[in-house]
Amino acid sequence: xxxxxxxxxxxxxxxxxxxxxxxxxxxxxxxxxxxxxxxxxxxxxxxxxxxxxxxxxxxxxxxxxxxxxxxxxxxxxxxxxxxxxxxxxxxxxxxxxxxxxxxxxxxxxxxxxxxxxxxxxxxxxxxxxxxxxxxxxxxxxxxxxxxxxxxxxxxxxxxxxxxxxxxxxxxxxxxxxxxxxxxxxxxxxxxxxxxxxxxxxxxxxxxxxxxxxxxxxxxxxxxxxxxxxxxxxxxxxxxxxxxxxxxxxxxxxxxxxxxxxxxxxxxxxxxxxxxxxxxxxxxxxxxxxxxxxxxxxxxxxxxxxxxxxxxxxxxxxxxxxxxxxxxxxxxxxxxxxxxxxxxxxxxxxxxxxxxxxxxxxxxxxxxxxxxxxxxxxxxxxxxxxxxxxxxxxxxxxxxxxxxxxxxxxxxxxxxxxxxxxxxxxxxxxxxxxxxxxxxxxxxxxxxxxxxxxxxxxxxxxxxxxxxxxxxxxxxxxxxxxxxxxxxxxxxxxxxx
Length: 496
Known about the structure:
Blueprint: H1 8-15, H2 27-58, H3 63-89, H4 100-117, H5 124-157, H6 161-186, H7 197-221, H8 235-242, H9 246-276, H10 281-308, H11 310-330, H12 336-372, H13 377-406, H14 417-442, H15 449-479
Helix pairs in contact: 2-5, 2-6, 2-7, 2-9, 3-5, 3-13, 4-5, 4-7, 5-12, 5-13, 6-10, 6-12, 8-12, 9-12, 9-13, 9-14, 10-11, 10-12, 11-12, 11-14, 12-13, 12-15, 13-14
């Protein structure tokens, strides 16, 4: 793809025309954006839900070795996000914009690497472990170069809070649709001792085909509508927008903590249903209920945001996750309805917070632009994603270490009481503790919806002033005898 640089005056002139962001997004664009996260999660959720099970029960890798693998590779993946953010910020495609080219050309390699990650050949313990490290690291790298542009795209589609809430809801629905499919139809097959290699290989190949179609649908139904005065952002400009962005810093810290608890929960949850409650079919029931929860929250989220604000609702979601984790840890195994209620309280909190966090991140882009005059969706989203990926690395590793601490027997056989305690700790105590820490950090978050609205108004006014000045300068240049606005012969060019 051909990348071009655009001067400020040309970009500003374009900004005043058809690319000005409308108040409302077309429904097809919202639906198309949601399809992109469905495609993302064909690779991402499959890995977060089943990769530890695949490593321990199919490939035969020990829980401790698998935990270290998840920690190391996901931290590498987090740094890949920063690299991807810089590449995105400094590139621009004249027809497709900054973000959609990466989705278009990066989707197929990403989905094929998902197939390779779940297709470890029997080449000895060392060879299998090496394959696991390399394939998962490459999957993470490819995911960064698709997900960073995808996540950044929302902030470029609209600056209206209620419309961003719709986009956040759409991507959450897409993600939950995939997660629910995996939970309803695939998780019940994760029985101890079952031969699952063919299942995972077939599943990921099918996902590669479906995911490619979903990504292309996103590319051709979405558009970047927000004005961009600087198409190619330098490293200095990127760092300037991050410096002093307190809302972004606090959101990153809170999200790191929340994701640590969430990944611990999602990584070990299948063990909780199978080995603690002895009710693996309930995993499918949870997934079905998740669909209704997600659609219900998505339907009312814009109104909730308008009434209470994103910050307060995020704190409520974190509180629900903490309360659910407490119930999950202490509920006796024979009181399955009580334990299941705790699980669903966790899921309700997760759904609410995960919808809101994307809209919150987009708001921090405007804060950085307000401070510096430069809009840098790529590096802002990359830093945010970096901290989330680090949280995922820590959470997934802590879940695996909880299994190892308890003495989990690989292969899915009968487990000791201490092993069951380790599973309870990973699926209950860890989510509870990190959700509490996340909400405490979020209490200090300063960028309310009212403040964000003021910032957008200020940015728009400032942009209009610069555009008017550019037009006056162009007109004066034409009056001086040149068609392109350059000084006429005998005149002196001066910089403002």
